[in-house]
Amino acid sequence: MGRRSDHTRSELEALIVDEGRRQLAEVGLTRFSARDVAKRIGYSIGTLYNVFASYDGLMLAINARTLTLWSAHLRERLAARGEDRIAALVRGYFEFAVQNPRAWVAIYEHHMADGGPAPDWYQAIVGELIGVVAAEVAAVLPSLEPAAVLSLTRSLVATVHGHCIFALYRTFDMLGETAPVEAALARVREAIAAARGGPA
Amino acid sequence: MGRRSDHTRSELEALIVDEGRRQLAEVGLTRFSARDVAKRIGYSIGTLYNVFASYDGLMLAINARTLTLWSAHLRERLAARGEDRIAALVRGYFEFAVQNPRAWVAIYEHHMADGGPAPDWYQAIVGELIGVVAAEVAAVLPSLEPAAVLSLTRSLVATVHGHCIFALYRTFDMLGETAPVEAALARVREAIAAARGGPA
DNA sequence: AAGTTTTTTGAACACTGTTCAATTGGAGTC
DNA sequence: GACTCCAATTGAACAGTGTTCAAAAAACTT
Predict the structure, then answer these.
(1) If interface means Cβ-Cβ distance under 8 Å, which residues of chain A face chain B?
(2) 3-state DSSP assignment of residue B83
(3) Which nt has its C1' nearest the CA of B33?
(4) Least enclosed by CB within 10 Å: which of A58, A195, B7, B152?
């Protein structure tokens, strides 16, 4: 069936996502161009649009890949022997963002063209990442009921995220003080301590 | 001198920023178009580029306006009689973001074309906003030295910001639980309590 | 070899930010 | 009023974007 080379559809999909991630890492979300991705892998723009129906679809696939890599990174950090698993998570969060700044930012700064929410399959991948954190929060706070764990987890992720994004873009010039990572970790520790000693 | 109407240069500047903010509020940063702004105020695209040398320049002017309005909003909330000034700040932060979602997000999602930092005059305006918060942090923690106040302030702003952006984009689906505002306020209170009882 | 089906193409369209030679129209001078 | 002068204003032109889709190409089927 008219294949130009011996790429199956899913191989081609992976090829595009890989090259897309490479370009995203190089030029960032603003200058990212689907045309360029196609050109770089030696296919025409039309082929790319046959695989991913739209720019949103391509970007979603790229961000999904970044998210799974991020989850994997967190799990690795947790697997590395070390007592303080909460610290491992917070440091892992920052590490990945610092190592992949433009891809990481794209997760947050890409929005669907129609302004609507991301599709379910994508949100499931986000949920996986949250799940990794929630498991550790639950382990540290055994007396907390599941709903409260999820609620606190989201608040902690939000806290760390805020520090991380301010650190990457120095809009608020977080540099030149106790590293943002440590500030984030301090906030997380305080929140956990409060949850422990609070409504016990 | 060839004026088409009786707009002085700074009146024209304000006219563009106002219409730009209106369009930004309507369509968001992604679909924002300098051409459309020009068309809407009845000037050509060329005139707009004579006033603001680039898209970045226009966007910075728009964001600067948003920032000063935001600062004003916080000061108003602080001026409204009420004991808990920290809560007023946190609630004011969220209020403004929720009332001006697209303009607020643009502050964070616009980046200079060359990837560099924003010009000094712009950063000064950001500094003003931080200053409003820092003053309250200092008031609540009188024993803290100025450098520590600034450091803690940035951490607290980062914390609140993280909750706020997760609330606006429901990427992480913060809804359906204790409102994100209250979670953010809880984190801030814990941090302040820790700073009070910590290295005292 | 002929026919069928799937993949691939790239010109075409409507849009973007940006530039800059040409035009416009008010101010000053005679 | 006529005539410069010059800043303000214009908009076609350029290189780029995402998107579409009739046509071409390539592989599979009979």
Answers:
(1) 28, 30, 108-109, 111, 113, 115, 117-118, 123, 126, 130, 147, 150-151, 154-155, 157-163, 165-166, 169-174, 177-178, 180, 183-184, 186-187, 190-191, 193-194
(2) coil
(3) C16
(4) B7
The reply to whether the CB atom of residue B68 sits less than 7 A from any atom in nucleic acid chain C is no
What are the φ and ψ backbone dihedral angles of B153, each rounded to 5 degrees?
Answer: -55, -50
Q: Which nucleotide shows the minimum CA-to-C1' distance to residue B47? A: D9
Scored b (16 or more CB within 10 A) or e, A41-69 reads: bebeeeebeebbeeebebbbbbbbbbbee
Q: Which residue of A has its CA nearest to B175?
A: A151
- Alpha-carbon distance of B110 to B105, in angstroms, equals 8
Element (H, E) at A147: helix A146-168
Of B120, B169, B118, B151, the residue nearest A110 (C-alpha): B169
Instruction: Determine whether the interchain pair A187/B183 forms a contact, defined as Cβ–Cβ distance below 8 Å.
Output: no
Q: H/E element holding B72? A: helix B55-79
Least CB–CB distance from B157: residue in A111, A123, A172: A172
* 3-class SS letters over A38-71: HHHCCCCHHHHHHHCCCHHHHHHHHHHHHHHHHH
Check A186 against B191: CB less than 8 A apart: yes
B29 token code pair: 């940063």
pLDDT score at B200 = 46
Give the tens place of pLDDT for each residue, B60-118: 999 999 999 999 999 999 998 777 999 999 999 999 999 999 999 999 999 999 999 99
Give residue A184's identity as a one-letter amino acid code.
A
Tokens at residue B32, please? 């924002």
CB A38 within 8 A of CB A56: no
Mean pLDDT of B125-131: 95
Question: Which residue's entry shows tokens 């949850």?
Answer: A195
Among A169-173, B45-49, B129-133, the range scoring the smallest mean pLDDT is: A169-173
Confidence class for position A8, pLDDT limits 50, 70, 90: confident
Six token digits for residue B143: 């024993």
Cα–Cα dist A99/B110, whole Å? 21
pLDDT at A70 over 50: yes
Residue with tokens 């942090």: B137
Contacts of B64 (CB under 8 A, 6+ apart): B122, B125
